[in-house]
Amino acid sequence: MQLAYKQSWLKKVNEHFVSPGFFFNALRNALNDDAIVVTDVGNPTYYTSELFPVHKPGQFICPTDFNCMGYGVPATIAAKFMNKSKQVIGIVDGGAFIMSGLELVTAFTYKLGVIIFVFHNSELGAISQFQESTINHKDESIISEIDVKGVTEAVHAQHIQILNDIDTSGAIKEALMHTKQGENVVIDVNIDYSRKTYLAQGKVKTNMSRFPVIEKIRMLIKAGKRHIVE
Ligand SMILES: Cc1ncc(C[n+]2csc(CCOP(=O)(O)OP(=O)(O)O)c2C)c(N)n1
Ligand SMILES: [Mg+2]
User: Are 42 and 69 in contact, with CB atoms under 8 Å apart?
Assistant: First the structure.
């Protein structure tokens, strides 16, 4: 089933967006076997756990349990401090990136050579996608577009943009070259958010299956009303 989900992201090379399927394949191919991947909360955690093969324990770090947004960038820097000989990359989405991120100045001071991939959808997507299906509107979960390049320049990192699947492999290789010189890189990824993650699809199904029938009917009527009337 999970394989089928992955395959569904690999049907066609996308010239307009970066497909999570091709992105994580390219990332796995480019990184060493012992590379460390750190994610922030939200879709980066879901996509990485769904689509990125992790070869050994300790190579995938994410803020489980307390799920604190803003964890990704500082955790990537900390992981690199402790593993200077390894490739260490972080993946964050826009909402989390505006909660932290300026710590990259410290990575510059110490010439650490980390890569931060920034996915962004101008939304607190992990929240808005559930609001959309349940209450039919996005309540306080829209955020402004971020000037990723501006932030990157402020922290003296290299800026790379990945617009589509064709750009992906070359951009990751270029970024890894920079890290060899101790330069940090922020990669602005035009990720395709047109489809729900495997987790989001499963969450609705699993939660629905847990409720008693009467509760399911009540919830469906409520959601239906919101979609039709409001
Ligand atoms: C400090 C903090 N505030 C709120 C939340 C609740 N929360 C979980 S995911 C999420 C949205 C994350 O948005 P973004 O970083 O843009 O990632 P996306 O879901 O869009 O991929 C929020 C608000 C949290 N986990 N941590
Ligand atoms: Mg977002």
Answer: yes
